[in-house]
Amino acid sequence: MARVVLENIVKVYSERNGPGVRAVNDVSLVIADGEFMVLVGPSGCGKSTTLRLIAGLESATSGAIRIDDRLVNEVPPKDRDLAMVFQNYALYPHMTVFENLAFGLRQRQLPSTEIEARVREASAMLGLEPYLQRRPAALSGGQRQRVAVGRAIVRHPKVFLFDEPLSNLDAKMRAATRAELSRLHARLGATMVYVTHDQMEAMTMGDRICVMHDGRIMQVAPPLELYDRPANLFVAGFIGSPPMNLLRGTLTADGHEFQEDNPKGPPLRLSLPAHLAPRAARLAGQPVVLGVRPEHIAADPSSAAFGARVDVVEPMGAETFVHLDTGAHALIARFAPDQRPARGETIRVGFVPEKLHLFSAASGEARKASSRRWLSLVWPSMPKLLTT
To answer: What three-state secondary structure class fits 333?
Structure first.
């Protein structure tokens, strides 16, 4: 397998009468050997362009791309030893599954015995053995996707690249195929780079997740760190379903209390917990954003309670989503399945203090990240290098 290194990558699509579109803007990222890295973000954030730059399907405007310490900026795609799985399966409709799996190997003029062995190995791994003599038209969507993955596996590449490969599947098949890909990664120990806009896929599959927005990296971290410690407002609002509740307000001059912006009535005032004290001291007297996850809004808490009107109740079976109106902000709370307040009812709720997040309203950042912290997120080996 291989390590992939992106160093200050910029990709600009030029325009005849304009400055051009900067699709990827100064992206630096190290994907460790054998790591499952997920690039996630909204449409137009630059994640697919970044994948295509790694594959060699696009040329970087500036910056360096290295695979196994080899500079590949000028290396054509066929010589980068990568395999890519696309959103559309791109199978040859007139060929059987066996022939689709073997086609790329035959183009490379491998011996027929080796082709046979590789195809049999991949088909056994993916449960495709009963379908080897079928054509794509006789396969389900999930089976076609497995053939596309198998076509990548038989090549024994250094890096697997996946560009939203599950988008064409229904929800049930998507969940099953997601689990198959995770098992496949564990079995192969392969370096995989996976692009998706679906945060569920990102959270359940990635060793680390790279969140992108407007061509830039917002945060790189393991899934639970992204969820529990988002670095900025974008990550806080993007990761999580329902997303984190964000309340705008101001800190008091001593930094001990948050006061929400509420032009309609008396503002909500909350004393900040001890874990936010260092950050609050630096932001004292400034506009801030207070964040709280839906599951950290408690009904009828013993303290720090305030009133909120119930707008919508969504029973989900294992949980209940309750949309609340505080007068200044709309909140979403995740309650137990048997907690179903009536629409229009005013209930008392409160925040779990230890789970609150504080962001600067000006910068959107949750903390002032040191260069060491940032490098450790982007480059996994950097902490060890900095201590030697």
So the answer is: strand
